[in-house]
Amino acid sequence: MKGEKMKFPDNFLWGGATAANQCEGAYLTDGKGLSLVDILPAKAEKRNEALFNPEQALKTKYQYYPSHQSIDFYHHFREDIKLFAEMGFKVYRMSISWPRIFPNGDDESPNEQGLKFYDQVFAECRKYKIEPLVTINHFDAPLALFKKYNGWANRKLVDLYLKYCEVLFKRYKGQVKYWLTFNEINMILHIPFLGGGLDVRNSENPEQLKYQAAHHQLVASARATKLAHEIDSENQVGCMLAAGQTYPYTCNPKDVWAALTADREGYFFIDVQSRGYYPSYSRKIFKEKNIELQWAATDQQDLLENTVDFISFSYYSSRLTSADPSVMEKTAGNIFASLKNPYLKTSSWGWQTDGLGLRTTMNQIYDRYQKPLFVVENGLGEKDEVTPEKEIHDQYRIDYLAENLRELGNAIEDGVDCLGYTSWGCIDLVSAGSGEMSKRYGYIYVDRDDQGKGSLRRLKKDSFKWYQKVIATNGQFLLEEGV
């Protein structure tokens, strides 16, 4: 790597990312209401079944709910943000818990105690000159909205969400400049309960229900973007995609077409949020799935006139697909199952690692939209061992991140405009998919196990000092041998 020229922009925003429902805990503290995640049990207690059968989950009393305490960021945020500052964070991607502000989602007035908590979090960020990047809704809509309206299936949620947004934009004006309207908005098609507060099991046409709910979110995102700009002209609003380039299994044209079709499913959302209108190929999708969207009179204008300022996305690995049903060997991923790529390494959870895939993904997205990108999730979930000396040697994480960051740098050299990078789970937190603590991503170890036992003590991993050097050198440390 020595001798190569790779330069990150001088104002590049280095940092890390978390989500309220995976780290805050304090699930009923200071007036907070229940969120969607708060009824999901630990993995050993049929978390996946509960995820896709929320009505059954509501009727069942489980022994342990990981989100209820999580890593207790609610009471440890000062300690944690100080550690982020020690690493040199320029930005901290976090989310606000909607039910901490509006416990039932349709309350007449917001919960002042919830607002004060985030006042303190943002003040702590300002203390260390860390820019907050705030996700407004990260898989934690108030559970009451699911019970009362079946979530985003009901258009009423557009107005309730905008009321929530208006409170945030006014309260935190001058404290927050970067906003994301929805986390991984395309996930509503794959995990409709978390993505949209939906139960689709009894629907005559589940696809109709999911796409109608998605339409409501897209309209809400556009109107929130307009509101953010009106309240503070300094606000920058982005969309957020669960991304990862899909490769064809072979050069068979049918496999190539299958890969293109798979990628379009996710790009569909960003096409609307970035361009302001539904893509031409959506007509065929809706026809094949027998979908007829219900539009309000102002929807088309709202979408067209209020596109996002930048495009953010999560990237963990590329994907692989084939048109041949006999190709069966699959591997795990970020919700998406994928065919196993024989050219890639696989993690303990079956996720495959592909740094070059990040460069490819960034080029594809930037070529498509020509708007600034922000890599807001990227990381490796692995089991970490604590030595008797209280050390965590996570070279496997360093290797993964170094590979991805070098390719991110290469994408910038390719001409991609990238605002920053926030690695996922900069401090260990509860896995959204499995509810496990043992699937760790952080630079900071938290003493908490899958059964919720542990002291919550924070320990620095080897990757902590490594990332500290990466940030201090604005990425040039990545060019040195042996990192």
From TrEMBL:
One of its GO terms (biological process) is carbohydrate catabolic process. PROSITE patterns: GLYCOSYL_HYDROL_F1_1, GLYCOSYL_HYDROL_F1_2. One of its GO terms (molecular function) is beta-glucosidase activity. It holds the Pfam family Glyco_hydro_1. The active site is at E377. Keywords: Glycosidase, Hydrolase. GO terms for cellular component: cytosol. Belongs to the glycosyl hydrolase 1 family. This is Glycosyl hydrolase 1.
